[in-house]
Amino acid sequence: MSEAIGFLIHDTARLFRRELNDRMRHSGVTALQWRLLAYLARNEGTNQIKLAEFLEVEPITLSRMIDRLADAGMLSRRRDPDDRRAWCLYLEAKSWPLIDELRAASATLADEAQDGLSAEEREQLGKLVERIRQNLSRKASDAKQPEKVA
C-alpha cells in the first residue's frame, strides 16, 4: 500500500480537479485559474514571480493567464514599490463573486469526496495529508539549498 500512496494522492487530485472543472465550466475559469484567484484572495499584492513558483508554471504561461484575467476585469497589475521592474497583482471587485462561487463549489465537492467518513476521520485525513505535504515541501526546499562546503 505504501508504494501506491503517491498514485492515490495524484489520482484523487486529478479526479477532484476534473470534477471541479466540470462544475465550474460555465464560469470560463480553469482549475489553474481558480488556484491563481484563490492564492491572490489570500495573498493579495503578491508579485508574479512568487505566484509562478506557487503555481509551478513558467513565467510566460502565468503572464498569458494574467493577461486573460486582467482583460476580463478580474485582476489588475500594479508596480511593485520595492522593485520597479516587477508587478504586484490585485483582485478587482468583479472577481469576488466568482471566488465565492468557486469556494462553495470546492467545499461541496470536498464534502462529497469525504462522504462516509466520520468527523474524526475527516480531521485525521486532513492532518495526515498536511503532514505529507509538509514533508514534501521541506524536501523540495532542502533540494534548492546549495550544498555547504566544509
Q: What is the number of strand segments?
A: 2
- The second-level CATH architecture of the largest domain is Orthogonal Bundle
**CATH class annotation of the largest domain:** Mainly Alpha
Question: What is the CATH fold-level name of the largest domain?
Answer: Arc Repressor Mutant, subunit A
Give structural notes:
The chain is mostly helical and 150 residues long. It folds into two domains: 2-113, Arc Repressor Mutant, subunit A; 118-144. It has helices at residues 5-24, 31-42, 48-55, 59-71, 95-113, 119-144, and strands spanning 75-80, 83-91. Strands 1-2 form a two-stranded antiparallel sheet. β1 and β2 form a beta hairpin. The longest helix has 26 residues, at 119-144. The termini are far apart. The model has no long low-confidence stretch (mean pLDDT 89).
Task: Supply database-style keywords.
150 residues, mainly alpha, Arc Repressor Mutant, subunit A, 2 domains, two-stranded antiparallel sheet, 6 helices, 65% helix, 10% strand
Walk me through the topology.
Blueprint: H1 5-24, H2 31-42, H3 48-55, H4 59-71, E1 75-80, E2 83-91, H5 95-113, H6 119-144
Antiparallel strand pairs: 1-2
Helix pairs in contact: 1-5, 2-5
Outline of this structure?
By secondary structure, this protein is mainly alpha-helical. Helix content is 65%, strand content 10%.
